[in-house]
Amino acid sequence: MAHTLARNWAEVVRLGRLVRRHLRHGRASFAGAPSAAKDRDLSTLFRTVNTFLRDLGGEYLIVCGTLLGWHRHRGLLPHDKDVDFGLPEAAYPLVRASGDRLPAGFLLHDTSHRHGGPKLYVEYRGWEADLYFYAEKDDRLLPYVVSDEPGDAVPFPRDWFFPRQPATFLGEATFVPAQPEKYLEHQYGYFGADAERDPVTRYYRRRSP
């Protein structure tokens, strides 16, 4: 009973966060134009969490849409709504215990109960930095995440991620996978700027002329 109530309350908190985000930035999003305020907030969130993870040590790197933005634009994707970091599963206990090292206004949340394994995010002004933790088995990696994205359900070779390589994103020193193009193709299928979603496979494909 207590566990069910806790999960329901977590969902109420999540929905409240989405409502606040919509009220703050919804008009710009529905107008089809990126919000300058959103980009400022996401940039601040990225820099803060990147510094937080760097100071903790460990092998973090940028993944998912943030990596795609780095590869395609050397910046945020125009309509992205979060930032994404990946870490080895072994990093979870230290990161989970270090939330008090984040600056005021940045809150660390644990949603592991929804993903079958370690999963955290940092909230700032209604926006999120997702922290994905990867299980390793037989030199392959798989994120702990419940997701509709097909690329999240298929393990991939560890050497696509590690050894990670240094990079710069939003003016900050950070890290990207050893083989970013292979990882992006695994995650999305086609990852060019003219991509569209295939409604059957849910991977991306080149947009038809």
Report on the structure:
- The chain is α+β, with helices and mostly antiparallel strands and 209 residues long.
- The protein has one domain (34-206): Beta Polymerase, domain 2 (2-Layer Sandwich), CATH 3.30.460.
- Helix content is 36%, strand content 25%.
- It is built from 5 helices and 11 strands; from the N terminus they run ααβαβαβββββββαββ.
- It has helices at residues 2-30, 36-56, 64-73, 92-97, 180-188; strands spanning 61-62, 82-88, 107-110, 119-124, 127-137, 140-143, 156-157, 165-169, 172-176, 195-197, 204-206.
- Strands 1, 2, 3, 4, 5, 6 and 7 form a 7-stranded mixed sheet that branches.
- Strand 3 and strand 4 form a beta hairpin.
- Helix 3 (64-73) crosses helix 5.
- The radius of gyration is 17 Å and the shape is globular.
- Mean pLDDT is 89; it is low at 2-7 and 18-33.
Secondary structure layout:
Elements (H helix, E strand, L loop, with lengths): L1 H29 L5 H21 L4 E2 L1 H10 L8 E7 L3 H6 L9 E4 L8 E6 L2 E11 L2 E4 L12 E2 L7 E5 L2 E5 L3 H9 L6 E3 L6 E3 L3
Parallel strand pairs: 2-5
Antiparallel strand pairs: 1-2, 3-4, 4-5, 5-6, 6-7, 8-9, 10-11
Helix pairs in contact: 3-5
Q: Characteristics of this structure?
A:
11 strands, two-stranded antiparallel sheet, Beta Polymerase, domain 2, 209 residues
Number of domains: 1
Q: CA-to-CA gap between the ends? A: 54 Å
The CATH architecture designation is: 2-Layer Sandwich
Coarse morphology: globular
Low-confidence parts: 2-7, 18-33
Beta-strand share of residues: 15-25%
Question: Helix proportion of residues, in percent?
Answer: 25-40%
SSE order, as H and E?
A: HHEHEHEEEEEEEHEE
